[in-house]
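pinging the channel bc i need a second pair of eyes. not urgent but kinda urgent?? the chain im working w is below, pasted from the shared doc
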Amino acid sequence: VDYASVTSITEALQGVHTVISTVLNRDEMIPADNLLKGAIAAGVKRFAPSEFAAVKEANFDIELYRMIKVPHWNDVKNSGMEYTAFRNGLFMDYFAAGSSYHGPLKMFPFVVNVKERTAEIPGTGDEKGTFTTVADIGKFVSAAVTLDKWPEELGMSGETLSYNEIVRRAEEVIGEKFKVTYLSVEELEKRREESIEKKDMWGQFSAEAFLVGVKGKGEIKDPYLNKTTDVQPTKITEFLQKYWGKA
């Protein structure tokens, strides 16, 4: 399929009922927009844009998402198709960065660096967030396809807990204490402003994502798919044990 061509996409989607998009490019949205246009032209009935993150409100707090996700979401809502946004919180997989993990994500430590036994935690560390493995997201989405009707939001959760609790569990699995530092809202705001001045997009994104967590917007409070499907998701301790536990 040529994602630069709406015609190519339309032809590929003939007879397709549901499209789950994972197309998202921070530099340009043409592939994602063309996929939506092709789905409409092909008569697709259901469409889910590439969300797969925190709550909807968080998209307005992160400039990158505000620029690319918010306009695309509005186009989806006006498409005439049935639609939903899959929301899973953060990818639990990042806690395996530096291990034997092999998966679809480009791995890097986020907040908790288990390999180095360190954690740089935004806020007090008691704010809760939702964490779900990529594998379980696939299972939830697969189950969602069979639902008779899609609500506008389809939340899911592997486990919801605080970073302080994640560090405690990682210490138990590893058998060592972690070096933990905390970042105040003021420090995060300063990082954000400095990153903007330096045109450091990743630094800005990280600071804004940390602030989203401090505000409690990383928690999926009503994980609809946990209630309506039979998926039994991986919990944090099980995940940490798999990649960091002693053989």
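so DSSP finds ten helices and eleven strands in the chain. and Residues 127 and 215 are 8 Å apart (CA to CA). — does that match what u expected or am i reading it wrong
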